[in-house]
# Entry
Amino acid sequence: MKTLTFEPIHETVQVRTESDLLQALLAKNLKVLMACGGKGICATCHVHVRRGADQLTPRTPREVKTLSYITGCDADSRLACQARVLGEGVVVELPEGMYVERVEDLMSLLGQRAQMHILHPINGSVLIAKGKIITRSRLEELKNLNVEVQRLRDLK
Ligand code: FES
# Structure
């Protein structure tokens, strides 16, 4: 077993050696949209590994490619579904914001201010910034989101 820490929530979790970071997130009941179903081709499990990166398996070519188009990536970025835990001392910082995969999921928030950034599930860009009002016209602009996510899921 290996122990990991999540920031900024200051939570620790124990996972089996060689488990992926995604399993660690799920073990802590942290919601991960997994828009691609764990194939390493979306933004929804993007995390920053602030310490202990050398205690994880190296990035896969697919992961490197996906990270290259995700907004908000830095040198510490990993896709949680691709990084397996080999050793102790890994500190994972969770990105700020909420991913959304269907425009309908935002309908109940129509007319309200976004409590946090609402993020694109494939490229991680900010669709609606924290504090901005969620308008019908903005949701109209986002109607292709459902199609994009379905296309992603259909990829082998
Ligand atoms: S769940 Fe899509 S890349 Fe990890």
Observations:
- The chain has two domains: 2-93, 98-154.
